[in-house]
Amino acid sequence: MPGAPTLGVDLGGTNLRIAVVDVDGRVLGEERAPCPATGWRGIVDAIAALVETLRVAFPDVAALGVGVAALVDQGGNARYAPNIPGLIDAPLRAALADALGLPAVVDNDANAAAWGEACHGAARGVEHALVVTLGTGVGGGIIAGGRVYRGAHGFAAEIGHWPFERDGARCACGEPGHWEASASGPALGRRGREAAAAGAAPELLRRVGGDAGAITAPDVATAARAGDDDALAVIGAYATDVALGLAGLVNILDPELVVVSGGLVELGDLLLGPLRQAFVGHVEGAAYRPPVAIVPAVLGDLAGVIGAAALARDAVT
Amino acid sequence: MPGAPTLGVDLGGTNLRIAVVDVDGRVLGEERAPCPATGWRGIVDAIAALVETLRVAFPDVAALGVGVAALVDQGGNARYAPNIPGLIDAPLRAALADALGLPAVVDNDANAAAWGEACHGAARGVEHALVVTLGTGVGGGIIAGGRVYRGAHGFAAEIGHWPFERDGARCACGEPGHWEASASGPALGRRGREAAAAGAAPELLRRVGGDAGAITAPDVATAARAGDDDALAVIGAYATDVALGLAGLVNILDPELVVVSGGLVELGDLLLGPLRQAFVGHVEGAAYRPPVAIVPAVLGDLAGVIGAAALARDAVT
To answer: At the fourth CATH level, which superfamily is domain B6-119+301-316?
Structure first.
């Protein structure tokens, strides 16, 4: 059924979200539930239950796409998901297709979100784009030649996990000095705590009642929005690390566009301004190539379900 | 003429090398000259002169491919070549096709060498491979889906140029702490000098007549081959930095195979042994994915001409 809507699932460590999405990327209906902690069979059952609910109003959905916070292989098996209990070597694609009687695709959640921005968002019509998600961690998706770049096994685009600062802060994955440990939301909070503890952010310290150790990324953001120069300086230092990492990724991948998504992008130009400024000139041969624009994502936290639904649509058309 | 040989050019800062290569990757004839320092027209003339010489014995060559140490755009223009005087915004492809009356393609030299290894060398038959050249600098080529990954503008795979050590040694490109500055041949020499100056490599110091500042990468290699434990430790520390960087690139690109080429690979298992050992476990979710093999290149310094000739063959078949 060309033109029929498809289902998109965004499956993270905490929440399970599912939407009916039309060919123009519009969300027609949506259901949510907590992510079951009972292993992959419980997850399949939970998705199936939400699909049956949505099928009452949308009986013509043509396929199901899932974006999941996991390493997903080319067969749609979730091989490893550090934040979802029991999701190891889980045959999600096959089990969902069986349970629902629908064509199903399963991909990494960041790939799905990137594909959402590529099909219906900030990277629409762009053949080569890098989508970088700055949030609790740093994730991303690579669009190359108008498709999701998945690598040999489907595990590509783990773009937060490479050594950025040899003896830097430990990454959530356990490795020291990964870019994620400098470019994630928690890294912004850490910078705020360090600045306050060093006496370099008195207004920020005052805002949290004098306990430097209590400062979080949202505290830094709130202070920056209120015009606190110290908080702005903290964001500037953070933006420099993000920019240097982005320049490195641009040297490796040569996208024409970088899309920044995730919680940090809510800072808007408070982040994107210093980020763009710090980025310029760090790309190889910058004077001899077209500039790479850095733009904010536009789909917000709907990117995952919209992209997963688009992947499902691709699979049946 | 399917089956006709093609011409492959390897154009670096010092040497111009050109070979007639058959469909099986065998070099049938070869010419060399110094790389002219008279700008791109001089380079085109020099290539044309060598081609005319080779055409006497091989009149049926079907096309010409060039790999050049430059940022090369999708139209075969060399946009920027820091080590080749006058090679800025040079329309090499069009000028060579005009001068020779042959179909011509121009690509980055590391891309060409990677394509050589993919077509006729260590990555033959591999759909997704990363070819890393450890030499004066660190270069590379990305094979993705059985093709050279070029990115949006042809500038991809500048894989030496990303921040690896925040306040590390300055890269040849001017940026501080790029991986190239830790993983190149000169970085191995620098480690040897540092070890000798710190009194940690007395035998290495003796070999160079007591002048720690005179130690080069080949000195470290010679001492290691002779069994000097201190030199082996220097190589081990160097290999760890190479391995951590490779693991990061594998997290981003997800190849099934890493091919190591360049002058450093002549160290053989003295390098590859500690490199493989340091690499294991630093890839995300390593326990849940197929291991990535690290193998030496097999075409040596012929990879460039063989790969350039293969690119030319692809263009006419």
So the answer is: ATPase, nucleotide binding domain (3.30.420.40)
In chain B, residues with a C-beta closer than 8 Å to the C-beta of A289 are: 71, 73, 79-80, 153, 155
CATH of B125-297, one of 1.10.10.10, 1.10.599.10, 3.30.420.40, 3.40.50.150: 3.30.420.40
Residue B2 has pLDDT above 90, yes or no: no
Query: Would you kindly state where each structural domain of chain B is located, as residue ranges?
Result: 6-119+301-316, 125-297
What is the per-residue pLDDT for B1? 60
Tell me which residue in A158, A248, A255 faces B284 most closely, judged by beta carbons.
Answer: A158
Q: Are strands A257-261 and A71-72 parallel, antiparallel or unpaired?
A: unpaired
User: Using a CB-CB distance cutoff of 8 angstroms, which residues of chain B are in contact with residue A138?
Assistant: none
Average pLDDT (B112-130) is 98
| Predicted-complex ipTM score | 0.96
Q: Is the pLDDT assigned to residue B112 strictly greater than 80?
A: yes
The answer to whether A168 and A182 are in contact (CB under 8 A) is yes
Contact B289 A155 (CB under 8 A): yes
Is the CB of residue B303 less than 8 Å from the CB of residue B261? yes
Distances (CA, A) of B240 to A64, A210, A279: 44, 43, 29
Segment A115-143, tens digit of pLDDT: 999 999 999 999 999 999 999 999 999 99
Provide the 3-class DSSP secondary structure of residue B15.
Answer: strand
Segment holding B294, helix H or strand E: strand B293-296
Are A149 and B152 within 8 A, CB to CB? Answer: no
Looking at residue A13, its pLDDT comes to: 83
Please work out, in degrees rounded to the nearest 5, the angle formed at the alpha carbon of residue B213 by the alpha carbons of B208 and B218: 55
Is A85's pLDDT higher than 90? no
- Are both B6-119+301-316 and B125-297 of the same fold? yes
Nearest CB partner across the interface for A288, out of B80, B175, B249: B80
Nearest-by-CA chain B residue for A73: B289
Most distant CA pair in chain A: distance in Å? 63
